[in-house]
Fold:
Amino acid sequence: MPSTTLIPTQARAHLTVRVLGAILLLFVGVDHYYEYSVGQYSVLPTIGTLFLLNFISATVVGVLLLMPLDRMSHRHGGAALKILAASGFGIAASSLAALLVSEQTPLFGWMEPNYRPAILIAIASEAAVAVSLALLLVLIHRGQPSSGKSRSVSKSGGSFTVKASQQRWHHMKSEPSRPRTPLEQPREVSAHRRDRSSARTTARLAPCARRRDRLAGDVLTDIEGS
Structure:
């Protein structure tokens, strides 16, 4: 019973964390595009390019995370999901680190003036993406050894069965042959034994027969003499 209720719970938690991380990652991308277009970050030589690349990569990874990759490809869906989760985590973590650095020291010639509301929203969203996608990677990693263990258990069970059958065969092969019971003996052997038993009986009765013949001869001799 615990296995039937645990598997749907894990799948539901996996899907919830995955969708939450994807939506937050899309929000991070939209926020960077907003700062790029409206906040005039596009005029900054390196920062503007990084903001645009952040928007593109976050949008692509977020959309792919929302797609049912495990259903579309049963063979490569798990690996693709792990790569996407790691990529999204890298996008969020690098953006958060760059933002925190730019608040303390110039980064590529640009330094944020203060922690205005847009910066606080960016910090909160990027931290939430990093946490959710890191949790998704943990859930994916925990889900993999179970299949691996089941395969190892099945393989070990199969090898144990083969070894047990081989040991049983060797034991039967090395076991000394037991004597046959009377029911398993051939008919010739039983007939020979009957002949031997009848011969023994005849040999035992032969002295009695000779003694009887001798007494009968004495009686006949006495009758003739009288």
User: Anything to note?
Assistant: The domain at 8-147 is CATH 1.20.120 (Four Helix Bundle (Hemerythrin (Met), subunit A)).
